[in-house]
Amino acid sequence: MRFVVDSNVGKLARWLRIAGFDTLFIKDIDDNRLVRIALDQSRILLTKDTHILKRRVVASGRLRVVLIEDDEVKAQLRQVLTTLNLAGQLSPFSLCIECNETLVPREKKDVEQLVPPYVYKTKDKYMQCPKCRRIYWRGTHWERMSRELEKMAGSG
Predict the structure, then answer these.
(1) In-domain check, residue 95
(2) Are 56 and 110 within one domain?
(3) Which of 37, 96, 111, 113 lies at 20 to 30 Å from 64 by C-alpha?
(4) What's the structural domain count of the chain?
(5) Residues near 20 by beta carbon (within 8 Å), at least 6 away in sequence
(6) How many CB atoms are closer than 10 A to CB 134?
(7) pLDDT in the model for residue 146
(8) 37 burial via Cβ count (<10 Å: 0-12, 13-18, 19+)
(9) Partner residues linked to 102 by β-bridges
(10) CA R_g for the chain
């Protein structure tokens, strides 16, 4: 499932990426361009903007839009997961939360100079974004976000 997220629900993009969903977020984009990207790339548009729902392309069924109802990001994610029945399709921590690129495994020896010494001593598995080069590992943030995802997906 692929998404494009309107700026009025921008924080949702980060959580969708954490959950493993290909999610575009472009700051300061006008509605016409947002709709065009969604159509061209076969993405579901997530927005709070009711005016987008009035467009012919939505009424005709060519563009799928989910109108986000809540202001709180966790409730927004829960709505998307429930509305689109995605709870069983989560692939947590497979995408960069900044770039939306698929993370690639890295050998421990290759990240020694890239992570804090304590992390290097205590963690063995690492992933890296090929675009921004950010390194990821299963630390306390990972554990906390995993629990949150489980709750939002209804499995925790």
Answers:
(1) no
(2) no
(3) 96
(4) 2
(5) 89, 90, 91, 92, 93, 94, 95
(6) 16
(7) 82
(8) middle
(9) 95
(10) 17
Question: Closest Cα partner for 19 from 72, 82, 63, 68?
Answer: 82
Q: Return the beta strands (E) in 60-116 as ranges.
A: 65-67, 104-106
Residue 82 is assigned to a structural domain of this protein: yes
Q: Is the pLDDT of residue 156 over 70?
A: no
The one-letter amino acid at 155: S
Query: Is 136 a domain residue?
Result: yes
For 102, the 3-state DSSP assignment is strand
Residue among 156, 154, 151, 146 at smallest CA distance from 18: 146
Residue 65 has pLDDT above 80, yes or no: yes
> Same domain, yes or no, for 143 and 72?
no
Residues 84 and 114 in one domain: no
Q: Which domain holds residue 117?
A: 104-152
Per-residue pLDDT, averaged over 38-59, amounts to: 96
79 and 113 in a single domain? The answer is no
* C-alpha closest to that of 27 among 49, 47, 44, 7: 7
